[in-house]
Amino acid sequence: MQLKVCSTQRDHNLSFHSLPLAGNYRTRLVRTFLDFRCTNTPRNLDTMLLLSHLRCISKAKLVTFLVGLTLMFFIMASYILMWDKERLPLTSIPYQVRPADTSTNTADVLLDKSFMDRKMLLNINSKLQYTSRKVPDKKDIVDTNPHLFSVIPRHFFPGVKSPCWYQEISKELGSDPYKSNRFTLRSKTFKNICDHMRADFHQHVWRRDGRRFRLRCLPYFYIIGQPKCGTTDLFHRLLMLPEVKFNIIKEPHWWTRKRFGYIRFRTGFQERFPIDDYLDLFDLAAQSIQGGIYGNSSGDHHALQIITGEASASTMWDNQAWSYLHGDINKSEPPFLAQDFIHAVQPGAKIIIMLRDPVERLYSDYLYFTMVNKSSEDFHQKVIESVHLFQRCLSDRSLRSCVYNTSLYNTMPVRLTLGMYFVFLLDWLTVFHKEQILVLRLEDYAANLKETIKNVFDFLDALCQQTLRQH
Description:
Order of helices and strands: HHHHHHEHEEEHHHHEHHEHHHHHEHHH
Oligomer: single chain
Distance between the termini: 19 Å
Strand order of the largest sheet: 5-4-6-7
Number of strands: 7
Shape: globular
Strand content: 5-15%
Helix content: 40-55%
Number of helices: 21
């Protein structure tokens, strides 16, 4: 099948509603919970009820009530954007778990006069609107890592679906191209694959004018997040298809962490993973594709259609490295985001995003990362503390600044900001065209797996009708 050319023209006027969702969902306008002008009840009756309640409560409780509703907006705004007008707000999913009610009174916790007052409330309400980020110039992006852009060319091999090119083999590489790959130290499976590829590496070397070259490939698509939203299941289902040649490591986290020298940020700086280590992950696909280019394989056409991808669930949101590397920079937001670099080297990449009810996602995230004392009561208290911290941030900073704030992220007992999908999505739309991004919901994936997978196949344009019937 022929690869469709994706436009890379930037469109700063795009909205979340213009994304190609997996399914024909109609959308509704989003309003904050502080807006009482539009309700489903008659206007006169609504006004009378509101005035009646206002007479019965103190000013302090009114502030608390409004704050609570504002916080509900932050948690649910992204999910509301994808609701169907004719459906219930929350779609049931298998094994759905909701924390039980506790005796903790949220209003009492929030009603802290030293922390929240009317002025702060008005300040927070004024920051709910998303402001489009200023995309850095490509020259500034290149200057941050000239070696990266010297390795990856501006144009890829024609007639091949995947983004591939020939890279000259240096003399230092010798006959063992994988001896210094850092991924092999952390994955025994990948080490075994490298041992296998090393044995017949010479068979895949292309020689010309006394120089030696190897075929290199980048991922054709990226499953970028979010965590605990089903990306692992989707990855392994695609891995079973003959047209898709994944790397064995599902989450290399190269664009967000390892290229800067961080495995986990809490363990500090360790060692940078060079671009060649990352490209080695896709050598299995490159070797299969090279067989089609040379025409020495019975499946020549099939080999040229092979694609590969990766599924690092941190790619969508994690830009903490800049605060670790450039803590002296006086900026409220990261100067560069991961998508700036991916787009700069690969403007035609396809992006797959999987989302989930943000409350369900947060609870699943809590269960996965919490080692001891797991309980719905503990989760409830940690969420209250995180919301409290986010309120404090909003009193001084913009919404985007708080979402990307590394100090706030490290202080929160639960990863609350990861559920603010609309900020991340709209930031990805500042560099990638809307047709290059597919948004899936875990609820739809669980309820109708066959249809959702078909939508992924159609988006990737990689599979024939026979493959669709088989799966």
